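Holo prediction. Input below; ligand is zinc ion.
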Amino acid sequence: MKKCIWCSQDEQQASFNKLAHTIPQSLGGLNICKNVCDNCNSFFGSHYNKLPPIETVIKETFNISRARFLNTNDEIGKNKALPRFKSIYFNVDFKKRSIDLKPSYELKSGFQEKICRQLKRGIFKMFLEERERQMGDGHDSRYDFIREFARYDLGDFPIIYFERRHGAILMVKSWATNPEIFMSRGSQFKYINTDHSFFEFELLGHLFGVPCTRAWELNFENYIVESTKQKAGFFKSWRFIRNFNDIDLVLNILNDPKG
Ligand SMILES: [Zn+2]
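Structure of the complex:
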């Protein structure tokens, strides 16, 4: 019996006919979370409260990194084609390595904050659906705050971004063509911390830390000290995401392999 991880309705109460991609298909995501009802699935792709759709924001921001990654072997600016990139919200210049909101959105008051909130909700959305798909524990009550924030727009929870020290990102091309979130903790990368209060995962060359408990502040200092110690050789700093520019979306780091 299917039961939606977002609204808790089961097959008798809701329909489950559409495929819910954990990472948007337009980003190359192939994985499906079975326990997402059609209603919640379409919610993430729709305008709500005049906010840009969560899925659109995720697609737009991570597509910048994806386009950049798929061109890693091209040396940008040296007679090689720059990645072609179309976006609703952003002007992206890979040559100048810059990303800005389009003027029409820049002028909308608070749009920057809105788009950042949607981006965070989208990262939580991908996390919980992948969590359910891979570990089967998405209904656990410890994740209720993720449901409230991502699905019902309640509260606010942090997402940490770790800034790399080197451009030599360990990544195979399939991770960019068909991106995944790696849930098995610490198996690939020595620098992934396995504290119980934050979950760290890599997506399209970015390393994020998301709280996996509502009371994340209780253990935060401990966690961040240990986590940054562990990452010392690979990452130079961390920050809370407060702006889309807090994430190195154009992957400037790739231009600077020696760091
Ligand atoms: Zn639902």
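The two ends are 51 Å apart (CA to CA). That is the main takeaway for now.
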